[in-house]
Structures are given as structure tokens and as C-alpha cells.
């Protein structure tokens, strides 16, 4: 049985009954058993482990008691937010997300302050373990969330190392959509006498929803949203964004455009939330702008359109979002805004839902103009049928003589005045939104952990890099970190991309030697960036970057294809793209 404080929190979040994975896993984890859960995204796995583990926390202990490993920083943030929402009525509760891209200084301060729950990506967790800044000696439970995704991203060795560093008596929960051999091996080693739970995938709700996406840049989103809301047929709509501040900002901008809209976020109390939902059910609101957590359990049959203004970082959140429509057997529609950098996320969602997401074109100015005209005509016809217009007819008869205008001229003038706040003639005001230029495949990847002072890479060294085409003048540089320091190509890419603000697609071929490495970078690196890179650390080793002269110290052999270019040498021939 969950404690009253947790029950109160999930009730306010709109939870009515547990999902199948929650119903199966929560009693086992409450009893202290190990659990191996296999379930597709969208089945409520976060609640399945967070709720029972929170119930087993010792509130008097401020050291880490629960560790959750997640494959991406975005998922780590989402899981940490879920823990915070579930524990809102638990006194002195602290959860800390740890991932690359954050300042180590801020993370160290938070670790010293103490947190009962740590949610992090494998690379950053391992960094803190190596530094001795994260202590797991009092850990009660460890969770591997999306274990198969961590395997796919090359983190499985880091996961093994972290698991080995946890106390022998801790509770273990592993959740994975699939069970490949390496994941099964971890389960056999660390999940002794585990209760295995397998939940069959259900796609019936998703199948009733027509899913589409629009490719655009971030600065085109508001215009695109306005076109969707004007040009699509729907009864009510929910617009999903990532942050609380975005709910307020987007709702305010839509309200200024005349929409009946309200926001829904985690800062709202239960009474305000219930009032907002009642207004939508009563046709007093047509649009709600919400975050994922705030919309959990939202069930309004009127919602026939879901707009993913911000693409979710994991498929489970996407399935929860679009599940707000297509209720009670009705048809629903879901539209996803995607930037070129997010195409990989789009493909992940398609794979998880087993449904293709079709590309769509935004409604044109002509379509929006026609819909406004039709809507106004319907209001006019309803007014003629239902209202007593005799007073206004007398006015028209009087004005016709005084103004010396025909009935058609008077009607046109009145129509002009009536539509001034929302003009009917708007086709020319909606220019075409051009699809942004598609970037290279490397930019499609969801961002993974990078650090402000990178010392551990986000990706494993997958062996020699396949040469890829580089545009412009490139120079080969030498950095003083090599195989003996445990460096990987991903470490170098992450450090340079983060510290020098050089997009990873402009980082060329990397070659690892025993005591140093070489990397191809644009020749025209500003001096201040070049000097800054000299001081950057990778694997606790300062880069000390210099122009490569082709010389190798004793013991370091260069490949047989010869040394890199010397200063002033012509750039190398174009290279084939990396897979």
C-alpha cells in the first residue's frame, strides 16, 4: 500500500487506476523484490518504479538511496521531474538529475547538500564515482530505465561498472522494451531471483489516431501553430510543450489572437486544475497548453486534436500525449512539430508506436481564409434563425435613406466592421512557411550528455572512423591525450563541440595513438577559441592542442597512409561521409 502523501500527489496529478505494468510491478517493488520488466513505451514504467521506491525511502537519511540510470539527459530530467511530482507532499525530499552539459560546480554543491534520489546518465554518474563526489554506500535501490536503449547507445560497459559499484544488498529494477542478450546477461548477474514481468504491447488507441508531422525551425512554431488551429477541423485541442514557462507564454500569445485558451502546468493547485478541465468540458475553453506531467490523467472527450509543439524526448511521453485524443472510440488527430535536428527522435517514436507518421503541409492562407468565411457565414445564418432582428431592421431602413446606400452596400459595411478583429480577407497575410534546410544525419541525433569540462565521452569508441566528406579548408591538429589515457573518439568530439562551439558535423577524422591523438578541424579557428581548447581536459588530461607537424614521438606509430598536413599545406581531398 502506498503512503497517503504519495496517494494524494498522484490523485492530484489525475491518476485514476494503475496501468498493467504498474499493477504488476508496484506490489513486488514495495515488498523489496527485484523486478525485470519488459514493456513497450507508453505503459507507465516511470510510475511503476518511482512510486514504490519512494514509499520505501528513509526520510531521515539524506544520502542517495535510489539511483536511476537513463540513456539521455532529456529522459533523466523527465524522470527526475516525475519523482518530484510524486513526492510533492513528502517532507525534506530532494531529487538530483546528473547529466553532461551542466556545470560540475553546481552539481557538486547539490551533492554536498544531499539528495535521496539521483537520476543520471551513465557517463556523468561514472564521472562522479571516479571523482569520489558521489557515494553509493547507502544505496537501497538502483533502476535501469530503457536498458536496451543504453545498450544501443553504447553505454552498457559504463552501466556494468556502475552496477558493480553499488552495495550487494540493494534492490534492482530493470525496465526494457526488448531483451537482447547483453541485457539478459546483466539481469542474470545482478537481478537474483527477480520477478519477471512482461506486458503485451497495445496499439489500439494509437491506431485510431491520425498522426502527422511538420518539419520546421523553432522560430516558425508559433506561426505554424496558429495555422494548424485555424486550418484544421477539431472540437477542442491540447498543445504540449516541455516547460512550465512555455505553457504560460504560448497560452498568452494564443489568447491575444482571440483563442479561448488556458495553460496547465505543475505549479497550478488542484482546484485550479479542476476548474480548467471543467471549463473545457463545458465548451468555455477550446485549447489547453500543457506539460506532460500536468496533463497526466486528463480525460476530456472533446479533445480531438493534439499538437506536439515541442517533440517529447522519449516515446513513452509521446504515447501518453496523443492518448489524450481518440477517447471513447472516437477518431483523433495528432500533429508533431519537428526540427531537422530532431528527425532521429521522430524515427524512434515511429518505431515505438509501430505506426508511420506522415509528413503534412501546413494550411495555406487560402484555406484559412475560406474557413473564416465559412465560420462567419454559419454564425450569420444561426443569428437570422434564432434572434429577433426587428429593431435592427428598422435601423437599416432608416440608415438606407440617410446614408443613401443600397442594402448590399450597408451589409458590406456592417460586415467589414464586424470582422475587423478577425479579418476574413487574410490569404495574403499567411506567406508560405518554407521547410528548413535538412542537415546532416549526425545532427538528427538526440543530444546526449556533454560536460562543461568533458572528461568522459557520450559515445563508445567504435574503432577506426570511416572517412567522411569535409567542406572548406581543414587542418590537422594534435592533442596530448591518447589510448594510454583511455580516451575514445566520442570523448574528443564531445569536448571540442561543447567547448569550442564547433558543431560535431564539422569535426573531421580522429586518429588515436598511444600518447596523443590527431583531429581534423576547420583551418580558420579563431585564436581565442584555439587558446581555450589548450586548457580543456579530456580524461583528466589537458588537450594542449597544437598544429600537427606529422612527427611522432618514440613509441607512437602513425598509420601507413602518412602524416597529416603540415602548417600551410593544402587541405586534403574530400572524404566520404561517416556512417
TrEMBL record:
EC nos: 3.6.4.13
Family membership: Belongs to the DEAD box helicase family. DeaD/CsdA subfamily.
Entry protein name: ATP-dependent RNA helicase DeaD
Function: DEAD-box RNA helicase involved in various cellular processes at low temperature, including ribosome biogenesis, mRNA degradation and translation initiation.
Main location: cytoplasm
Annotated GO MF terms: helicase activity
Catalytic activity: ATP + H2O = ADP + phosphate + H(+)
Positions of short motif Q motif: 1-23
Residue intervals of the DEAD-box RNA helicase Q domain: 1-23
Subcellular location: Cytoplasm
Domain (Helicase C-terminal): residue spans on this chain: 221-368
InterPro entries cross-referenced by the UniProt entry: CsdA_RRM, DbpA/CsdA_RNA-bd_dom, DEAD/DEAH_box_helicase_dom, DEAD/DEAH_RhlB, DEAD_box_RNA_helicases, DeaD_dimer, DEAD_helicase_DeaD, Helicase_ATP-bd
Keyword Cytoplasm on entry: yes
Amino acid at each position: 500500500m502506498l503512503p497517503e502523501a504519495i496517494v494524494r500527489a498522484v490523485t492530484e496529478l489525475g491518476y485514476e487506476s494503475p496501468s498493467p505494468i504498474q499493477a504488476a510491478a508496484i506490489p513486488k517493488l514495495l515488498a523489496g523484490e527485484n523486478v525485470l520488466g519488459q514493456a513497450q513505451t507508453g505503459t507507465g514504467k516511470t510510475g511503476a518504479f518511482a512510486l514504490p521506491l519512494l514509499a520505501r525511502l528513509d526520510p531521515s537519511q539524506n544520502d542517495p538511496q535510489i539511483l536511476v540510470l537513463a540513456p539521455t539527459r532529456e529522459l533523466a530530467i523527465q524522470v527526475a521531474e516525475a519523482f518530484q511530482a510524486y513526492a510533492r507532499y513528502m517532507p525534506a525530499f530532494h531529487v538530483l538529475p546528473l547529466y553532461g552539459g551542466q556545470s560540475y560546480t553546481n552539481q557538486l554543491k547539490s551533492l554536498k547538500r544531499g539528495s535521496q534520489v539521483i537520476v543520471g546518465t551513465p557517463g556523468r554518474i561514472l564521472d562522479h564515482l571516479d571523482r569520489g563526489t558521489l557515494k553509493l554506500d547507502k544505496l537501497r535501490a538502483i533502476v535501469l530505465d530503457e536498458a536496451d536503449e543504453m545498450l544501443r547507445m553504447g553505454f552498457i560497459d559504463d552501466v556494468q561498472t556502475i552496477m558493480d559499484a553499488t552495495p550487494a544488498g540493494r534492490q534492482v529494477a530493470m525496465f526494457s522494451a526488448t531483451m537482447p542478450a547483453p541485457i539478459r546477461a546483466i539481469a542474470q548477474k545482478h537481478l537474483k531471483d527477480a520477478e519477471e514481468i512482461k506486458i503485451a504491447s497495445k496499439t489500439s488507441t494509437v491506431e485510431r489516431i491520425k498522426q502527422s508531422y511538420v518539419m520546421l525551425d523553432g522560430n516558425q512554431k508559433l506561426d505554424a501553430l496558429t495555422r494548424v488551429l485555424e486550418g484544421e477541423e477539431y472540437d477542442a485541442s491540447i498543445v504540449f510543450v516541455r516547460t512550465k514557462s512555455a505553457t504560460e507564454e504560448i497560452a498568452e500569445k494564443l489568447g491575444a489572437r482571440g483563442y479561448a485558451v488556458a495553460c496547465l502546468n505543475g505549479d497550478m493547485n488542484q482546484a485550479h486544475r479542476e476548474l480548467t478541465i471543467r471549463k473545457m468540458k463545458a465548451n468555455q475553453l477550446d485549447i489547453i497548453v500543457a506539460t506532460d506531467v500536468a496533463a497526466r490523467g486528463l480525460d476530456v472527450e472533446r479533445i480531438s486534436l493534439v499538437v506536439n509543439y515541442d517533440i517529447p524526448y522519449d516515446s513513452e511521453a509521446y504515447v501518453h500525449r496523443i492518448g489524450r485524443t481518440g477517447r471513447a472510440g472516437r477518431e483523433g488527430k495528432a500533429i508533431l512539430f519537428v526540427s531537422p535536428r530532431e528527425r532521429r527522435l521522430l524515427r524512434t517514436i515511429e518505431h515505438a508506436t509501430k505506426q508511420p507518421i506522415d509528413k503534412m503541409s501546413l494550411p495555406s492562407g487560402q484555406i484559412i481564409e475560406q474557413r473564416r468565411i465559412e465560420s462567419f457565414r454559419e454564425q450569420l445564418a444561426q443569428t437570422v434563425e434564432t434572434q429577433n432582428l426587428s429593431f435592427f431592421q428598422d435601423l437599416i431602413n432608416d440608415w438606407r435613406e440617410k446614408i443613401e446606400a443600397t442594402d448590399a452596400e450597408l451589409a458590406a459595411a456592417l460586415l467589414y466592421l464586424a470582422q475587423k478583429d478577425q479579418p476574413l480577407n487574410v490569404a495574403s497575410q499567411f506567406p508560405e512557411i518554407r521547410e528548413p534546410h535538412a542537415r546532416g544525419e549526425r545532427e538528427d541525433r538526440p543530444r546526449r550528455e556533454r560536460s562543461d569540462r568533458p572528461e568522459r565521452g557520450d559515445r563508445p569508441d567504435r574503432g577506426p572512423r570511416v572517412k567522411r566528406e569535409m567542406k572548406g579548408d581543414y587542418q590537422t591538429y594534435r592533442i596530448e591525450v591518447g589510448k594510454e589515457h583511455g580516451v575514445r573518439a566520442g570523448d574528443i568530439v564531445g569536448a571540442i563541440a561543447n567547448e569550442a562551439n564547433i558543431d560535431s558535423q564539422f569535426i573531421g577524422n580522429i586518429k588515436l595513438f598511444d600518447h596523443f591523438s590527431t583531429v581534423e578541424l576547420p583551418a580558420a579557428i579563431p585564436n581565442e577559441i584555439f587558446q581555450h581548447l589548450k586548457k580543456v581536459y579530456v580524461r583528466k588530461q589537458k588537450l594542449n592542442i597544437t598544429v600537427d607537424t606529422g612527427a611522432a614521438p618514440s613509441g607512437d606509430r602513425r598509420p601507413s597512409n602518412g602524416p597529416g598536413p603540415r602548417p600551410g599545406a593544402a587541405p586534403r581531398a574530400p572524404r566520404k561521409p561517416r556512417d
